Amino acid sequence: MSGAEDREAGGGPAAPSAPSAALPGPAAAAVAGGPGETGGAEEAGSLLGGARPHGEAGADPDAPPKKRLRTAGTGTAGPEGAAGSVKLEERLYSVLCCTVCLDLPKASVYQCTNGHLMCAGCFIHLLADARLKEEQATCPNCRCEISKSLCCRNLAVEKAVSELPSECGFCMQQFPRSLLERHQKEECQDRVTQCKYKRIGCPWQGPYHELSVHEAECTHPTKTGNELMEILDEMDQTRKKEMQLYNSIFSLLSFEKIGYTGTPPRP
After folding, report:
1. Edge-to-edge strand ranges of the sheet holding 109-111
2. Which residue windows does the record flag with biased composition (Low complexity) (predicted)?
3. Would you tell me how many other CB atoms lie within 10 Å of the CB of residue 141?
4. CA quadruple 59, 62, 63, 66: dihedral positive or negative?
5. What does the DSSP assignment read for 141-197?
C-alpha cells in the first residue's frame, strides 16, 4: 500500500511534529497549554529565552547570575541621590584636604610624585620624623619617597582652597578663606575685643560693637594713683607666678634624658 493510502487508512493526514517534542517535560506542557497550566507562555518563554535568575527554583546552579539592572536613584549623583544632596563645597573638602591631618591646608600645599596632597605642616613633620629615625620619608598614602627635591607645591589646589567658603566664628557669615582672617581680625562687628584700659587692670572683654559704649563708661581711667598701683602690683605678682611655672617646665624639658634608676629602699 502506498504512503498516501496508508495516511487515508489512518484517518487523515499525519500531524506535523510538535515543537514541544524537543523540549523538557515542563516546557512541553507549557507550550501545549494543557489543562491546569497557568502562565504557560511566559514560563516557556523564560525557558527558551535564557536561564532563570540565580537562586530561583529550577535554575542551573552552574550558570552565572544575571546582572542586576541599575534602578533609578541607586549609585547615581542625581539631585535625588545621596551625592546630589551634598553641597559642592562639602564634596571639595574631602578632595582637597591633607592626606595626613585630613584638614584643609591653610598655607602651602605639597604633593608627592603620585599627586597626594600634604599641607606644609604635615610635610615638614614627615621629613623631620624620618630624619630623626634615620629613615627615608614616604608618602602616607602610596609609600613613595618624598623630599624637598621630589615634592613640589600645587598652586592650583592652594588657589582653590583659598576660594572655598568658610564660616566666621563670631558672626556666622560665610566668606572666602582668603578673606576670612582679615574679616575676623579687623572687620567683624561681633569679634571679641578687650578694653583699651586693660593695661591698668580693666578685665572687660566683649563684642566689638559694644566696645565704644564700655570705654565711655569704664571706671579705670578715673581711679586714683594708689588704686592703680595696687592693681598693677597684683598684675605683676600674677605674671611672676606664670614665669616661674614656665621656667620650671622649660628646665624639665631641657634634660637630654629622663630615666628611672630603680625603687628607693624601704625605711
Report:
1. 117-119, 109-111, 152-153
2. 14-32, 41-51, 71-82
3. 14
4. positive
5. TT--B--TTT-EE-HHHHHHHHHSEEE-TTT--EEEHHHHHHIIIII-TTSEEE-TT
Residue 54, pLDDT score:
45
Cell 579687623 -> residue: 186
Other C-beta atoms closer than 10 Å to the C-beta of 122 total 19
Q: Which domains are assigned to the chain? A: 91-163 (3.30.40.10), 185-249 (no CATH)
Instruction: Round to whole Å and give the CA distance between 234 and 223.
Output: 16
pLDDT given for residue 157 in this prediction: 92
Least confident of 72-81, 103-112, 216-225: 72-81
Specify which residues 176 forms β-bridges with: 165
Strands 205-207 and 192-194: antiparallel
